[in-house]
Structures are given as C-alpha cells and as structure tokens.
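Hey, weird one. I pasted the Probable ATP-binding protein YheS sequence into the form twice and got a warning about non-standard characters only the second time. First submission, copied straight from the form history:
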Amino acid sequence: MIILRDIAIRRGSKLLLSEASVTLQPGQHLALIGANGCGKSSVFAMLLGELGADTGSIEGLQGLRIAHMAQEVHAADETAADYVLGGDAAVAALIHRSRKAEASGDFEAAAAAHQALDAANGYDAPRRALALLRGLGFEEDAGERAVTSFSGGWRIRLNLARALMTPSELLLLDEPTNHLDLDATLWLQDWLGRYEGTLLLISHDRDFIDATCQRVLHIEGQRLNAYKGNYSDFERDRAQRLANEQASFEKQQRRAAEIEDFVRRFRYKATKAKQAQSRLKELERMQIAAPAHFDSPFEFRFLAPERASDPILRLDEADLGYTDRSVLTQVDLQIRPGDRLGLLGRNGAGKSTLLKSLSGKLALLSGQRQPGAHCAIGYFDQQQLDVLDLDASPLLHLQRLSPDARQQEMLDFLGGFDFRGDAATTAIRPFSGGEKARLALAMVVWQRPNLLVLDEPTNHLDLDMRHALEVALQGFEGALLLVSHDRHLLRNTVETLALVHDGRVTEWSDDLAAYERWTLSREVSDAAAPSTADERDSSKKSQRQQAAAQRERLRPLQKAVKATESAMAKTEKALAEVQQLLADNALYDVSRKTELAELLQREGELKSESDSLEEQWLEQQEALELALSQG
C-alpha cells in the first residue's frame, strides 16, 4: 500500500496542499479531482519522484512499478507499434536483440534472446500493442506509420497506449479521455475495469469516473478529502455537507429553482420509456446534488435568440466529405427551433464532417444546404482555440465581436466564465488550455446564436465548468447539435440521438446505455438488402403493410399516453397553484388555520395523484416501447 503522511506542497509562493494524508490500498481505483490549478498534477509529479514534498513523507513506493501517461511524445521515426511496444521496455529490448542478432547471422545470440522472450511471455506483446492501438481508435495500418506523422491529439493517444502497455502496480492517468471520442472512451473504460493494479486518475468526465473508480480524493482549500464511492456518491455527500452551511443556502435555493424549472419543461418530452426513466432519475439526482456546485466560480446562461426561421437549417440529399474522398452520402437532416440532437459514432465515421458541413465551414460534394432566413450559428470545436489572438485580452476578443457594446456589460459577462479583474483585461498568452477553451465558448455564447453546433466542447474543462455548461445548455432556447464523449452532458442536454455509421446518418432510437453495449460488443446487425428489383418492390410493399398494421396497434397506446400526459399537466398546474398559496406568510396566522389545513391536505392529494400518474405514464411508455420493438 502507498501511504501519504502530512504532505505539504508549494509551487513558488503558492501553497497547494497542507497536512494531506491518505492511504492507497493495492488494487484500489481512485479519482483525484479538484479545480484547475489546485495541485492535482503536482501530486502526480510527487508520486513519480519529479517533485519533492515540502513536508511530510510517502511510504510504499520503493520497488513499485509505476506507469504514467506522458503529455509529450519524444520520438523520431520509429513506428507507432514499436513506440507503444516500448512501454514494456524489457520485452521490447528482447525483441530488438533477437532481430539484431538474426540480421547479423548470430543465431546463438538470437536463440538466447528468443529463450528469454519466451520466459517473459513476450511473444504476444506486438499483438497486444496493436490491440491497444485499435481500441484507442487508430486505423488498422496505423502501427506501421512513423510517430512523427501523427498530429498532437493522436500522439497523446500513443502515449496513453504506451502507458497501458507498461507492466505496473500503480497506473497514473492525467485526463486520459481528453483526446478520445466516445467509442474510444468506452473501450478505455472497459480496459481499466480489468486493470488489477492501483489506479489514480485525474479526469473531468464524471461518467468515466463513475465507471472506473470506487473512491474519490478531492483537493479543496489546500486539503485532501477522501470520499467513499464514485463521483456521483461524492457529489451527493458533498451536497449534503454543504447544505448545512448557512452561508450557501440562498445560492443553493436559486440553483435548485432553476433545475426544478428545467424538470417542469422537459420531464415528459422523452418518447421512449428507457429514455424517460433515465431522464427522470438524472433530474432527481441533479436536484439532490445541486448544492455541491454552489461555490463554483462559473455561472452563465445563453440569452434567448432574437429570432429564428423554421426550419433553421436543412441538408437535402447531401454528400459530404473532401475533394479526395466522400465521407457521408445522401444525408437528409432538418434542424428546427428547439431541436436538441446528439451525434453518436466511432472516430472517423464523419461526425465532425457533418458539423462542419452544417455550419458552412465545409462545402458539400453534392446536394443542398439551405439555411433559414435568420439562421445564426454558434460553432465550437478545438480548432477555435488555435485562432484566438494570444496577445489580446478576453475583453478585447469580445470588443472585436461587438464594438458598440458597453464595456461593463462585457466584463460582467466574462465574470460568469471566471474571467475577473486582471484575467479579463490581460493578454491570454499564458492561459491554460482550459482557460482558452472557456474563452472560446464565451465568444460563442456572446453572439446569441439560434443554432449551437458543439464538437467536443468539454475538452480541457474542469468538472465545475462542465456543470455550468450543462446548466446553461439546459436553459438554451435555440437548437443544439452536440458531439461529445461526455455521456453525462449528452444525457442531460439532448433529447434525440443520431448514429453516424457506414457513411450514413440515421436515427438512434434507443438510449445511450444501449449505444455503449453496441459499441463494446462491436456487433452491427444490418439486414441484407434484396438482390433483385422484384424482391425490392415486394419488400417495400410488405414494409408498407407492416407499418400500417403497426400504426393501428400503436394508436390506442399513443392515445392513452397523451391522455395521461394531459392529466399530469393539469395536476402539476394545480399543485403549483396550491404551493403558491402556501408560500403566503399571512396564511400561517392562527385565524386561518382551517384554510391552511385544507391547503396542506390538497397539496398531499395532488402530490399523490402526480406520483400515481407518473407511474402510469412510465408503464404506458414501456408498453409502447415493447410494441415498437415487436414491429
């Protein structure tokens, strides 16, 4: 086991940790969380021996094999496969020795190297290295390419693969999902679930933490606080603790009211029972956990779009891609006001190509792109960080967008993104990746779009900023298109899902959990197409007949669902009216105790009726989903 006793860490004059003590048990999987700059990376550097603690001691690191994910790639022209294989240095050296001996004709030395390789169980190492590359989204032939041929984000993936290749009892991973798409994130999640050593993970992806860690270490106020359970457990426990602090009460109540408003507006919008149940559970969790984020420095919202046409934007029979290759074909997509669409699909399937084509940043190969008369797109991807002016301040970036806006209005707005004081008025050159990402997002929000197109917006954002973005997106009144490996953000901000796969864009009718299972199993059940024109005509006729029959079966179920939804809306309205009356302080005068008792009784009856209707609605949705699945 690894024991940290009374650790203090300083960086310059800044105290990051004080009197920090914690024990890491063998095989334990832990998440290290906290605001940007709180000292998480310094803890990693200390465990790696790159940084000494100012006071305190560490026990249990002697002789321990430690693997970690480097942030830079220092490699020349070796292949990606050899670079990853180098994570297992002993085996890589034996393979290199055997190859060298064989090339020189020294078969005695080659035999000795092969014997040692067999003893080290190293013959399957090249296969494992290639499996790691495939799991992290690399193409089949990527192993033969030189490391120098890969871009920065892909080199970070190579570092991750190399770390996973390294035999270890302690694995340190710093933001491993930052440059991964959802499919690769799910693969890594599955891999870590089978890792038998001690895992210490820095991540701002709450679903990833939930799935891989059983304990949370939170750096807050220069203290290291340990929580049992995953991130959701931590959030709930912290919310309960902070709810007892009177100073935070007012802000907690305001945030709870915002979430309750979101619940009222969206709780009955799901069209599938699985999605409905997931949404209701998630909203209930959000209400309980709201106080955990009361001290977040981020608080912003999207202003209502000034106007929007209907549809805002559409693609008709569009082929998308580049001059040398087509990526997606025959795409028909219509974006209407209020649509909230999440895109699923593995890396390279064409999600970013679709977003760029919709935004007009990439010309269509064929077909039509038709923006509405008042289409105003707010587009964000990681490349937006590259076009920021490093010598300009956040304030100047906004002033260039809106020369006539009042400076104080802009400063107030930037404060919601935690650009306050000098941070709002000095050049951004020394800013971290997270701070630059916040500024790029702020610029999108400032322009009041009616269509938000977001491609992996949470990269480099910490948990509090992700939470603030989630809350802001929930209140956004325009249309939203989102690509994200952050499943929590997807679940809580989009209402429909589309799958980008095999060159097409189709509706994903199930929920995110089903997509996770489908991705991990790698099973695609596509029906075979009819082989002749007659068979195709016959198939179409049969499909029309089946569709008509299904509509007849579904009609009474759909009618029952609508009736229940109508009753629920009436009950919610009546309950809101009663609760408004109960909020009147004058009602609690002794002379009005009879009226108070009647209202309290009525409130209880309406709450019971609401619960009963909600149960009935979920049962009806399940029946409807079953009928749909039986086709």
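That's the output from the first submission. The warning seems to come from a hidden character in my clipboard, not from the data itself. The longest strand covers residues 14-24.
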